[in-house]
Amino acid sequence: MNRKFQEDEITELKKSTSELKEAIVSIVSILNKHRHGKLYFGIKDDGTVIGQEVSGKTLRYISEVISNKIEPKIYPKISNVKIEDKDCILVEFEGEDVPYFADGRAYIRVSDRDQKLSISEMRKIFLKTENKSGSWDSRISDKTIEDVNEDILKDYIERANKAKRIPFQYTNKEDVLNKLGLLKENKLLNAGKVLFCDNNNVELQMAIFATDTKTTFIDIDKVEGNIFDLIKIGQEYIRKNIIWNVKITDKREEYPEIPLDSIREAIINSYVHRLYQDPKGTEISIFKNKVEIYNPGTFPEQYTPEDYIQNRAHSVFRNPIIANILYKSNDAETYSSGIRRIYEECTENQVKVEFRKEKIGFTIIFYRKNYEKENEITKNVGVNVGVNVGVNSTQRKILELIQQNPNITQKEIASKLKTTVRTIERNVNILKEKDTLKREGTDKVGYWKIINN
Predict the structure, then answer these.
(1) Which domains does the chain have, with CATH numbers?
(2) Are 15 and 49 in contact (CB under 8 A)?
(3) What is the pLDDT of residues 121-159, one digit of tens each?
(4) What is the C-alpha to C-alpha distance for residues 54 and 289, in angstroms, rounded to an integer?
(5) pTM for the structure as a whole
(6) How far is the C-alpha of 95 from the C-alpha of 77, rounded, in Å?
(7) How far apart are CA 302 and CA 378, in angstroms?
(8) Are 291 and 364 in contact (CB under 8 A)?
(9) Does a cis peptide bond (omega within 30 degrees of 0) precede residue 99?
(10) Which of 202, 216, 251, 405 has the most CB atoms lying inside 10 A of its own CB?
(11) Helix axis angle, 320-328 relative to 260-273, nearest 10°?
């Protein structure tokens, strides 16, 4: 039996590309432990060379899967090698941006085995990496000046000028980025990449759930882009899907059940303090009784949220460059007063807010004080008063289309809203259960009737 090849902490053997899924896990495990390694396809785990069918298409497929499945991205060398007169594939890889994830999970190499990385081990890797190479946002990215969204950069400088925190005017991308300290070796720092480039891996996940738990969702969406756009998108998503109270004195006044400034502060906080090495992004979850904003960035271990509320803690920034850029445009403060401002504004508006330290990450929870009395409250939307109580954006659009044409079919609604018929059916059923919508007659001959509560 040929023992020339043997698995160890930096070498993995696979009999064929049918084991590509397992190979991805091994690559991540080795990278997280040793930062480099190699993997062979065409060799059994006992060292026996059996060969592997190799073509240009095979090599491209392996490269594509590695690119899609591993975060942060790596760029391995993949080649066809002859071993004992048999065709095999050699994958040589390296990377310093640990920890690496395979389909969102981290692993570590122990001898010749791959083990799932525990939360405590992952935290140690994060801290060790940051202490060794500086904050993530200060490292050089793969983006250049050409990747920068100039409109976003111009708008940023204009707002920073208005805030009187930047003395210079906009000239051109290179000049401005140099003055902001976001360029090095003709490439953007990671901070510049996530702030001013559209094509990156920064994402925002948003969902509305039918109950108080994550069992059945009514609406779900995921977007990628620069931080400034994601902040706006997140704000608007919550604004459109919470309840708006109506106060009538000498004029009609509408105000949200959760202060919008607190929502904005929480979303900005998530991008200032999040852990960008983790492929899991910021999450906005809207439940019947609460709104949660989660970011995958652990809270400073030496402090509690109460310390910040009581002004007993010092600033601890995981991404100090991002924090400083957002400070200059008056989007964030350099001192860690965000939690205190959220707490004070919510207290003033009688909104219960909770700051929860997760095992990995941090969540700000706004409790919806009016959710049990939804039928007494109206939302700031277009259809008749009372109809839009407690509905999401998709349901609101359905009602608006039905108001325009009571004979419209669910298939036609799906086409107009550019979604699936199944999504429309699910939301129509919810509207029926809320006694907001009723079908008169048969499916073929009947029509929709909107019920005003």
Answers:
(1) 11-118 (3.30.950.30), 203-371 (3.30.565.60), 383-450 (1.10.10.10)
(2) no
(3) 766 666 666 555 568 899 899 899 999 999 999 999 999
(4) 56
(5) 0.60
(6) 12
(7) 44
(8) no
(9) yes
(10) 202
(11) 140
